[in-house]
Amino acid sequence: MADISQLKRRTRADYAYILEYRTRWADNDMYSHMNNSIYNFLYDSVINTYLMENCGLHPASSPQYGMVVHSHNDYFASISFPACAELALRVNRIGNSSVTYEIALFEKGHEAVKSVGEFVQVFVDRGTAKPNPKGMDATMRQGLERILVQSRQSKM
User: What is the pTM of this model?
Assistant: First the structure.
């Protein structure tokens, strides 16, 4: 992942997929900003929304699913109800059975990034919960490659 100074300069244009989320009163903590745990909830949601819409994931029945094996987040500024968050997603790396996502949270109507997180998923077989030696299936890989940073840069 990039260093903090690079992450603070992220813009929506750095990401290939954006999903809006209307914050809820319950997302705020006692300090009137969105609780840290909500960020992870939102990051997981934007990833799974993308996987369902673009990669053939059917959570209840797909033979493979992504298991989060690493996550972290860097916070730069707060957001709070009743703001609308824009969750921006890209893939920084695809392995045989793993994928590294970068997710940025922006507030609609504001340019500065509020936070940038990283999730690493390993795609495992539903029956064994272990990575398939053949890796992730082709439909999943093709969908993830559409938002892979290197593939976007090579098309410019």
Answer: 0.92
